[in-house]
Queue: 2 jobs
Job 1
Amino acid sequence: MDGDTQFGEVEERLAAEALIVDVDGFEGPLDLLLVLSRTQKVDLLKISVLALAEQYLEFVERAKTLRIELAADYLVMAAWLAFLKSRLLLPPDPEDEGPSGEELAAHLAFQLERLSAMRDCAAKLMARDQKNRDFFVRGIPEDVTRVRKVRYTATLLDLMQGYARLKTRDDFRPYVMDRDHVMTLEQALDRMHGLIGYAGEWTDLLSYLPEGWETDPQRRRSATASHFAASLELVKNGAIQIRQTDLFAPIQIKAR
Amino acid sequence: MEDVQEESLFEAPPIAEQERMVEAILFATSEPVTVAELNARMPHGADAKEALEHLRKRYDGRGVSVVKVGEAWAMRTAPDLGFLMQKETVETRKLSRAAIETLAIVAYHQPVTRAEIEEIRGVSVSRGTIDQLLELEWIKFGRRKMTPGRPVTYMVTQEFLDHFGLESARDLPGLKELRSAGLLESRPPPGEPMADEDDEDENQTEMFEANEED
Amino acid sequence: MEDVQEESLFEAPPIAEQERMVEAILFATSEPVTVAELNARMPHGADAKEALEHLRKRYDGRGVSVVKVGEAWAMRTAPDLGFLMQKETVETRKLSRAAIETLAIVAYHQPVTRAEIEEIRGVSVSRGTIDQLLELEWIKFGRRKMTPGRPVTYMVTQEFLDHFGLESARDLPGLKELRSAGLLESRPPPGEPMADEDDEDENQTEMFEANEED
């Protein structure tokens, strides 16, 4: 009998030491308390919180003697359990406000029971049949084509109004008139293609301007610009060379 | 497609034909499909819900079954035949104990705040744990709680139900027992009345009652 | 898993069970499966070929069928239910002003090049606008123009005529009619001859004559 007790004590001490060594493996004081409570081998509902508090405090003491650094929250819990222990042991002070030791103990028991229950639930959950492990989804899903039909609401009236808008603008700003004084890049390019063969020497670009475009300032501007752009195009194509010896000096071109 | 809908405005196809349609739609996809979506895709006048009932019976005991996932329906192979399948799918990362417990707490206590999860587990919940569960699409944000700070809450998703083969959160194992044992209540520590106690109870009741109406 | 296979070394599962197995495998595998592969995955002694025959008959006339793909087998939704595999969302959007103007120009001036459209609109026409109209099948490519660079031309389509309720592009009201309908409200500034009106009509005629040659 005696030997049994002794053996029990040894076992307990070994367990406590194992706990301490494994302290990193605990997820905080509540987790540790839950593990300690299991050693009482009773239903969590009937657990002795006082005994549990003592176990915990003992644990912290042992950790101290073994010079194991415990995280702050373990120490906070130890302080709180010491307080709880004194409340449970001392007769209630009628002057004292706040919850009784029994209330605090009941809450701790509730927390432990709840945590334990959640762990069981987690285990049950993970033990369920799981998708793509125990049961499987369709392996060759067929595409559900999401036909997003955009229905455009253009009407014939929209169309005509759009066209009318363009034509109205023409009435105000006749393009035909403008065009008399504008030489396009394409036109200049066409002209220069025909003439470039004759430019064996460096020639002033302006000499390429067509007749009737050199005098009128508006026409001259347009023709100069388009011819300049066209000559750059020809340089790019490797048809001619271009140079300007000085700022504002004449721009000269030469066939390659 | 439109023509079919127009035509059938006047007469829905026979129920056997509707059953075929539901079968084809559920077969074609790997994601659960809601009854509303089924009805939207089927010809006008069809009753997907009824057709589903027929179909479910037809597949009873087959190698593939028609399962309910939250508000939606899907086809899944029978769990007892899992051994035949090549595990082609990439194994999901092994979940940490913290993640598994957090998941269970969200499932059983939803909608639940991070502070409540921490209160239950007794340790702080790392950002990574929540992130991992969000990423797996097993949990999602619920509405904010009407308590100071208006913290966000977490809830489980349809994907969670699908993954664990649950029809609804009501079907979580042991839920009834936990509830009758009072273990799903949010009980404030004595002497520290929680401002949101009433609200909390309301939320819980609401969720499960709302579910029960289905 | 192994146990099942070991056990069945001695006795193959009943054919109904084999049928379930084939069903589950065909459902879940991401590719068609050959009979040899089926046999390899099923318990020893199973006859996938026979089970397949049973399964095929079972799905006869259903919303899903067991089909042969080359040497392998797969499940597919019944072809007549293909229309269910579409989810249509209709969105009504107003055509942009640029698109309407471009479309109008094509309609009134076809066959017309992009450069010509730009000339008439006075601004460049984005690739997107043309693409959109092509996609809507309201315009199509006409023959190339016999000018340098041989640019492509655009024309309106039958689809366009149908949409706008026109018999032919010639039914589009002319400029004079637009004016009398009050669509052209602005008068040209006094003294500026409307050089382009007659010209316009001429173009139209030309255009449609050209069209008729097609």
Note: Chain A touches chain B through 41 residues (CB under 8 Å).
Job 2
Amino acid sequence: MVQKPIISADAAAAMVKEGMTLHVGGFLGCGSPDAVIAALAARGTRGLTLVCNDTAISDPKSGRTTGVAPLVARGQFAKVIVSHIGTNPETQRQMNAGETDVVLVPQGTLAERVRAAGSGLGGVLTQTGLGTEVAEGKEKVRVGDRVFLLELPLPGDVALIKARRADRAGNLQYSKTARNFNPLMASACALVIAEVEEIVEIGQIDPDQVHTPSIFVDYLVMAKGGV
Amino acid sequence: MVQKPIISADAAAAMVKEGMTLHVGGFLGCGSPDAVIAALAARGTRGLTLVCNDTAISDPKSGRTTGVAPLVARGQFAKVIVSHIGTNPETQRQMNAGETDVVLVPQGTLAERVRAAGSGLGGVLTQTGLGTEVAEGKEKVRVGDRVFLLELPLPGDVALIKARRADRAGNLQYSKTARNFNPLMASACALVIAEVEEIVEIGQIDPDQVHTPSIFVDYLVMAKGGV
Amino acid sequence: MIEYVENKEIIARRIAAIFKTGDVVNLGIGLPTLVANYLPEGVTVILQSENGMLGLGPAPAPGEEDKDLTNAGASPVTILPGGCFFDSATSFGIIRGGHVDYTALGVLEVDQEGNLANYKIPGKMVPGMGGAMDLVAGSRVVIAATTHFEKSGASKLKRRCSLPLTAAKEVDLVVTDVGYFEVMGGKFRLLEWFKPYTPEWIMERTDADIEVMSTCRCADFE
Amino acid sequence: MIEYVENKEIIARRIAAIFKTGDVVNLGIGLPTLVANYLPEGVTVILQSENGMLGLGPAPAPGEEDKDLTNAGASPVTILPGGCFFDSATSFGIIRGGHVDYTALGVLEVDQEGNLANYKIPGKMVPGMGGAMDLVAGSRVVIAATTHFEKSGASKLKRRCSLPLTAAKEVDLVVTDVGYFEVMGGKFRLLEWFKPYTPEWIMERTDADIEVMSTCRCADFE
């Protein structure tokens, strides 16, 4: 089995170029690739489009941030496609000031749109969002006596994901609710960088228990404090 | 956590009623619920619609059968919706004789149609089958400059699946390529019966390594030779 | 003269009494989360959390938090034996596919057609819908959990929602701190009123069509 | 006078030489399966099997078969270290999503437009398409692997397929036992001819438009 290069967080961040569409795993910061995000924040690459569950947490009082919030704070996103911005007041401020284009997508629809991109589907039909602002401007498809929204794939240039463990081939296992969007993001992007807490030898992960197959992963990065 | 009833193969087979749509896991017999299939063959329930990857293997010379082939041999299916019948000459004979309605579906499309039924999608768009007989009579949807087939969900009444291991709550783990369609079938049917080789106590399966969550499973059946 | 006193505990207790053993339930962030504290003895429900788990347990003891184990509000939680984890596509497959029996969630407005608004106040607050649109569209039974009145005194039960909708005509049950309603036929049908309120008092103060069912009864949570 | 002798080994060897280390490859049942035996020293490809695995290994030793571990033809196989298993939706997500670099599969007919027929002879044989339609529609590069002629002597490379299609205009490369072709611009472009055949001999006996590329060369597998 082919081994995947293990690179620094900064080398990973350098692969993200201005204007790219960036898929980032994590749910309000749980399961986010924090080392690569910190490196990307340090580089300051701008004009990015974010596809992520949310813009994570930014607490104006304590200054505490999680997940992609440091990138939001530096204004690195021209556009964010997310299900939730309620815990990041800075995203709301940028939206109201016209600095960042915010597209809100229902969480389950976001998951399916990313999955569709990764699995070669041209779209999926869902009833989520019917009769709401989400349906505006979207094609409706009637099947029998029911009407559905046609939701389109969301592919990306680079996926930054976080896993608990990788083998040297790039097979990944996630931990608990830190799994969330990570496997989906890995399937939908041209380049996939996985930040992991532990790298084991090939053969040490049970092949029945691989969450993301190695072929989806291009590079590995060690998380801070990883082994 | 609620425990799931452990019933006999015959009690499971008795839940399958004439005319029902039956989803069966397995790939040419690998990962098929053989004990429940044998019990259903013994009961002889007829007029069933099968949704399965294939009609498994029936070797006219040796008399060897795998998977759902015993049900095919007894003429219990009025209709089969499968990707492959090439290893079961009896299905071909029944098709040619007009005894069984055979609908051939590309394997990946079959997987997505069953998944769509299980996950509340009204359909999916795929390019598989475009320009072939599979596309005949189906709605085409244009997205940008590409055309896709609209493929519709395939829900069922009863799923008969096979897993390596269950806990008493019904969480399942599959073994190797015996996984195949089993998790998909479990999601798409009103009633789900899982034949398993081993039943362990609740808490003995790592929650990160559950392949089918307990809430999809209604009854457990011990496989022959199981522990 | 009956005076309204906001009471979230009554709402949580009444919702908790709806479930039976084996039900799969998603409790939204905020008020609905309280429901878990009032599940009757002997009733075992399975809590789903849309960020990717079944078998949601109580908050961990201080110092026992796991960075990789949170609920959909990013609070540390635990998992009960027999629970499991999965990715977001599977999680919403479970939700959209009708495998969640009940979802209870907070509201800004709910109307007599079953419309729900809880994700946006234009020009003021736009947190985003998160998983709410899928939960409301996909769950078998949708329970709106809300104090009956806003701070201003206006009822949150409306003839017609004025805020952007989370979902159209999907709400089945409404539990407030004055009563328990079913949404059907373009009306709120009052199933129970909660002491010390009365059906007349509720109807007077709610700008919506309320039908008092013949089987309607008083529930006393004191 | 050159006489045609069917030679599946040459087809397998030529296809094996196409891949480079790291490529994800699906080999169809039958002739394409042989390709695995001829992968050059030092080239590590990752074999996908559409019934749910990556890292497909050789057949097990007699007595070492595992009932739960087969390929898409139900033959016992093994898994190499670093391989993994998944369900059929994931398997075809990998295929349809373009994550398989090459698929090599057998044909009944292949034509100069890139159309492929390999799943059905109406009134005679209807095995079903299995995973072939997804593999041909989804893989990055589709390689048709076939002896050049039928038993009857007719070439399997056609102007236009007459059998029901497995996929329209998806074939990229055709490897037979007389040559190696690229399908482009409505023609078979001959990239290599295999000794002892010649471009002229191939063009004479193939009822299809063949263009001999200026870079076309002779490959000797003797």
Note: The first strand of chain B starts at residue 6 and ends at 7.
